[in-house]
TrEMBL record:
Species per Swiss-Prot/TrEMBL record: Mucilaginibacter auburnensis
Protein name: ABC-type antimicrobial peptide transport system permease subunit
Pfam families noted in UniProt: FtsX, MacB_PCD
One Gene Ontology term, aspect cellular component: plasma membrane
Membrane topology classification: Multi-pass membrane protein
Transmembrane segments: 20-41, 294-312, 387-412, 433-456, 684-707, 728-750, 770-790
GO MF, one example: transmembrane transporter activity
Record keywords: Cell membrane, Membrane, Transmembrane, Transmembrane helix
Domain ABC3 transporter permease C-terminal: 296-413, 690-792
Localisation per UniProt entry: Cell membrane
Segments forming domain MacB-like periplasmic core: 21-251, 444-651
Amino acid sequence: MFKHYLKTAFRHFSRHKLTAAINVLGLSVGISAALVIFIIVKYDYSFDKYQPDNDRIYRVVTDGDGWKNSGVPVPFVQAFKQNSGGVSAIAPIFDYGWNTPVSIPEGSNKVDKLFKNQQGIVFTDAGYFDIFPYTWIAGNASSALKQPYGLVLSDERAKLYFPDVAPEHLVGRTVIFNDTVKTTITGIVAANKALSDFKYDAFVSLSTVYNTGLKTYYQTDVWGSTNSSNQIFVKLAPNVSEARINKQIANIFDRFGEKNNNGIKTIHRLQALSNIHTNPSYDGQVNPETLRNLTILAIFLLALGAINFVNLSTAQASERAKDIGIRKTLGSLKTQLIAQFLTETFLLTTFTAIVSLALLPLLLMVFGSFIPEGLTAVYILREPMVWVFLLLLIITVSLIAGLYPAFVLTRFKPVSVLKNTVVSSSGASRSSWLRSTLIVSQFVIAQVFVIAVMVVNKQVQFAMQKDMGFRKNAVINFIIPRNFAKPDDKGFILKNKLNALPGVEAVSLGNQTPAFAGSMETSISYKEKGKDVTLSVASRNGDTSYLKVYQIPLIAGRNIVASDTANELLINETLAKQLGFMQPAKAVGHTLDFGGPKPIVGVMRDFNQASVRRAVAPLVYFAAPKFGYVMHIALVADHTTWQKTIAQIQSAWKGVYPDVDFEYHFLDEKMENFYQNERQLSSLLTWSAGVSILISCLGMLGLVIFMTNKRVKEIGIRRVLGATITEIVTLLSADFAKLLLLAFAIAAPIAWWQMNKWLQSFAYHAPLSWWLFLLSGLLMVTIALIIVGLRAGKAALANPVQSLRTD
């Protein structure tokens, strides 16, 4: 019986090659997209699953007024260790810093080996290995990081530093970080190969921080500073609730933190390990909204392909009616006929799945910006879950796309079929209504995608062109090597050299740029004339040239005077207003408590401190060039001289830091990364809109071909009676035009609702203009009617004699 089903199915496909091709093309895109998206989603939700009892592992995070941070104040670490219960392990992790230089002593007769720009270096203690297990090759977790200056290396990092020494023979060797922190290897562990956001290769004992000048840099006694570089993980004991530990954390801050934090109230709580990778609010690598959008996209594309299948199958009902009637007359059961149609659907879907596998490399390119490193076509095909998913997809699509046509076609009565009255039955009318509904559904989806593309692109353009309140063109930045345990004057020497270059307008040494992808918060208080205001504010610091580099105007007062410490403050307009000064000039001369009383000497014009997603926050600027680690350079406007000037800057750099590579970036290019997610979304929506339009138009083309074939004789008679080609094309296109307009009428409010909701996530956004909707609607209707018109025109141009020859 099954062999007969196969023969019948192949015979049907060979007679309807174009319809089969349309179904294969539509379904193959949907299946391949669903396959790739399944792998992406599965990959991103697989992070940090290797730890034993990972459901009991949490990170302590900080929520402030309008900001979130994945770190905690450094003194909280010791306070929590001494005042917590119900916790089986505690793991502090202090990031060592950016691009750390590492040297390996080679003895008095040899030059030390130098390794530049080393990453993955942290300060921690034995608790880290209780939460994130490693295989120990030498040493042990309990003692390796117990004493100051202890160092544990991964076997991969150990092989880099000591290529000719076996790992078990490295204990006792010396490794120097930043020319000052001299550590001794106390353990070697196997590199972590699992999917994790916390994979490090060098672990320095945390007690080193408390026994060097790093104690000041890491602010080990400052409760009012929160930095994402200083994190703490905890593993709860069995049957201990998250709420219990959150209460303990709150009590610790009430007892120790708030009295040392100018009274600013922040919330510190646990964040589940499973939530870290997919929570961008706390520096997560993936936005769950992106994963949801990808999943919805896969469902839509599969639905579009299935709609085509249902549409074309029900449209062919009258052509297969006689076959069904004869089979029923000869004794075929309804279940046998349903099995026949499901077999056809299953074969077509299986063939489509094979085609979709061939499309995988192309789809990987399309989703390139979403594909994690290492996810290649070979990796995907080797993953067992991929084949399980593909099989389930084939079965599901076969049932969804095949069941309805099967039930519709098997309902025909043999008597009606053999009398040629099936086409005029109510069942045919219902099928026609269903086809219209499905066509509208297809074009609603496509129309929403088109509108979304236009809105997202307009918002990205708005964000890139918005006046951020500071100069971002012709400005370059680079990080200078800084030993915060023992600051030196090399940064000032380099700055003076750069100031002398003819292609440089201004140079400043400080911390971050006016806007960057992160946050720096501090606390201030204002107590004057009965007011007692405490605020958490953004901060920037550096020298007196910062405002000149970025052309940030003062709207009241003056600039700070040159100083190594914060003796004076600049504030922005927003902070002045929050302090109660509606006229900025009136804020000048008043005092803020900022590590002691500091006078406000000037008010800066507001500038954006991050992307347009975030509103301008209150901000203070103060002098601290001694701890500056970013050089800010404004180049002359003539871009033809930039290459020469940058070469001169590099030469000056080599004169001060001969052993460190020179790396710089243009600020405006760096700021483009603020909108990487939006550009990814735009790319995804553009591709989705194109594919949905293609699939929808393919389905419409199939229906137009079917309808024109059914009306060949009608078209011939109209031509003979004098109808023009234009009139015939208009007649054949009118019904489709009505459906397209109905689709637009449904899609427009849906798109407005969704895109307006999306735009609300931006503090500053472009208006949701009506002309975007009109333009997208005209675009969609034009494309679809061109396809309908071309096929209808071909039918109208046919020789009426040929059309009527059989009558």
